[in-house]
Amino acid sequence: FVTGIFHLKVPETSHVGSAIGRIRAVDPDFGKNAEIEYNIVPGDGGNLFDITTDEYTQEGIIKLKKPLDFETKKAYTFKVEASNLYLDHRFHSVGPFKDTATVKINVLDMDEPPVFSKPMYTMEVYEDTPVGTIIGAVTAQDLDAGSSSVRYFMDWKNDVDSYFTIDATEGTIATNELLDRESTAQYNFSIIASKVSNPLLTSKVNVIINVLDVNEFPPEISVPYETSVCENAKPGQVIQTITAADKDLSPAGQRFSFKLSSEASNKPNFTVHDYRNNTAGIETRRNGYSRRQQELYFLPVVIEDSSYPVQSSTNTLTIRVCRCDSEGTIQSCNVEAIFLPVGLSTGALIAILLCIVILLVIVVLYVALRRQKKKDTLMTSKEDIRDNVIHYDDEGGGEEDTQAFDIGALRNPKVIEDNKIRRDIKPDTLRFTRHRPPAEDNTDIRDFINQRLQENDVDPSAPPYDSLATYAYEGNGSVAESLSSIDSLTTEADQDYDYLSDWGPRFKILADMFGEESYSPDKVT
């Protein structure tokens, strides 16, 4: 070696595997005899440093095997031995062909980022934990000589990180929203720590939070079962094996229990046998079942879990009674099972059903034809009644002439051909004479009207439509006597209008008009 001691200064932030210095031993030989091999003598630096030979310059290159930390150790001292790689046996007696030198390394203090106490943090929290609950904390320190305070903050990457918050000074992590185990079972995010004196120096650590399940949901039957029992079943036969499922994440070792509900325990039909392995069997309790008496049975089964708090639910199994052979093989569970003992086959049942359908169709068609035929009696054979217009050329007798035409022709045009009788001419036949007994002076007006009403109801010559008959019957005893034309004299000639002359000059002309046949307007002055 040119010198016996080598001094090196290495920053504590140097990367592992990097070259931190070189040393050189001088060999006056040439060729292979000049090649040098360097080795670190076991001691202080054997674990932290390594040395190799540069084949071009024959220098020893010192490399870093582990990271340095100024706060842990500030200096290292170790020895390096240099020797010929190839030895000529002719010169063994001359002496050892090697030399030793001391290497001193001073570690330089550098401004480093904070260091977390753990490489990764794992925390747990129950779902539905109130917002603001602290669930854990992270810790980072500045290991430099001039220790600086540390600040913490979340490494925001997605919306999931918003479920938690961290205290910038203390590093405590708290819930920011309600958590749901069934929605998200685990959260994974990062926390960053930075030095207050140099915010650019940061370090990051990963945090995993597992959401623990709270027993919220009761267990239920895992799948809908189609359970059946043979009519010739014996007591103690297992007709169905059931299992349960829970919407909660069942912890390891969770067990479900099965039992009948209290109201079903007293019925001698079926029972539940809990196998204590999260399954149960439905067993018969009676000797034979009759489908004619009861086709379906509803069995309420109570299922409980073993979590806290205990949750339970009642599930109803539907059990259908079926016809089976002697070996217990189900032959039929449908409606055919009821008729088979009578001797009817499937083909016979289908034929019967077809006959019933055909009969129903015939009845419907018959009823429809009857209705159509009844409707045709009010219509012409070729045209709809709405296309017929009945026209009359003769004049009626005014508003009170209800016999001028037959409105029944508007309802049935056949009347025109079948009945040619005019309504405005009194027929000699087909008309019955009304016998109207004279009303007595003291006859009550109600009896009078009822009498006239009955006469019209039984009169075959009355109009075939709704009509209004007005009767103005006037009783006796009026001081002013009757002013109505009813029961008056037949002709105007029989009237006596002489009393009009007694009413004064104003009524003299009126009296002359009604009282004298020789009245002439030319005489009026």
TrEMBL record:
Q: What does this protein do?
A: Cadherins are calcium-dependent cell adhesion proteins.
Annotated localization: Cell membrane
User: Do the record's keywords include rRNA-binding?
Assistant: no
- PROSITE patterns, alphabetically? CADHERIN_2 (PS50268)
Domain named Cadherin: residues: 2-116, 117-221, 221-339
The alphabetized list of GO BP terms reads:
adherens junction organization; calcium-dependent cell-cell adhesion via plasma membrane cell adhesion molecules; cell migration; cell morphogenesis; cell-cell adhesion mediated by cadherin; cell-cell junction assembly; homophilic cell adhesion via plasma membrane adhesion molecules
Q: Write the gene name.
A: Cdh12
**Species of origin:** Loxia leucoptera
Task: List keywords of the entry alphabetically.
Answer: Calcium, Cell adhesion, Cell membrane, Cleavage on pair of basic residues, Glycoprotein, Membrane, Metal-binding, Repeat, Signal, Transmembrane, Transmembrane helix
Q: Which Pfam families match?
A: CADH_Y-type_LIR (PF01049), Cadherin (PF00028)
Question: Where exactly are the transmembrane stretches of this chain?
Answer: 338-369
Q: How does it sit in the membrane?
A: Single-pass type I membrane protein
Query: What GO cellular-component annotations does this UniProt entry give?
Result: adherens junction; catenin complex
Q: Does the keyword Ion transport apply?
A: no
Name of protein: CAD12 protein
SUPFAM superfamilies, alphabetized: Cadherin-like
Annotated GO molecular function terms are: beta-catenin binding; cadherin binding; calcium ion binding
